[in-house]
Automatic annotation (TrEMBL):
Gene3D superfamilies: Hexapeptide repeat proteins (2.160.10.10). Coiled coil: none annotated. It holds the Pfam family Hexapep_2. This is Gamma carbonic anhydrase family protein. CDD domains: LbH_gamma_CA_like (cd04645). It comes from the Bacteria.
Length: 180
């Protein structure tokens, strides 16, 4: 992991116990990743002008970009990127200065923009655009560009949100066991 993780202005990413970071990922600056999470191939995460926090058992899949919004006169705190526990972020997503709760699935290619808040137990469909400062209510499927609240989640879909995170914990454990 040494080549994938670097400091910025003296702040180095804080990697929790049992975290897998692929060799081709790049983590810079003020980033904290909680236990049993995984950062997959070609992920770029820049905690350079604000911070990134990733909860436990979350997975950030291949080609995803994680970034933040700087502090300014109009936005004194900026927008950090906060990702809760048991979150699955699909391939090639972009998360920018937003907050994701727990047990969320962000479908492949989705974009979640500055100031957006995604409550717990939400499914964001592939290719969905969540505009700035939107709030996605718990228990729903959101799709489209821009996103719309499509329908309530079914029980099986809510169960899948947690199972998806478990699947990636098991996969990252296999990668760690292989020394990958």
């Amino acid at each position: 992991m040494q080549n994938t993780i670097s400091s910025f202005k003296g702040i180095t990413p804080d990697i929790g116990q049992g975290v897998y970071v692929a060799d081709s990922a790049r983590l810079v600056g003020e980033i904290s990743i909680s236990e049993d999470s995984s950062i997959w191939h070609m992920v770029a995460a820049r905690g350079d002008v604000n911070y990134i926090k990733i909860g436990a058992r979350s997975n950030i899949q291949d080609g995803t970009i994680l970034h933040v919004t700087r502090k300014s006169a109009g936005n004194p705190d900026g927008n950090p990127l906060i990702i809760g526990d048991d979150v699955t972020v699909g391939h090639k997503c972009m998360l920018h200065g937003c907050t994701l709760g727990n047990r969320i699935l962000v479908g492949m290619g989705a974009i979640v923009m500055d100031g957006a808040i995604v409550e717990d137990d939400v499914f964001i469909g592939a290719g969905t655009l969540v505009p700035p400062n939107k709030r996605l209510e718990s228990g729903y499927l959101y799709v489209g560009n821009p996103m719309i609240q499509k329908r309530p989640l079914k029980e099986a879909e809510i169960a899948f949100l947690k199972q998806s995170a478990i699947n990636y914990v098991e996969l990252k454990d296999d990668y760690l066991a292989e020394g990958a």
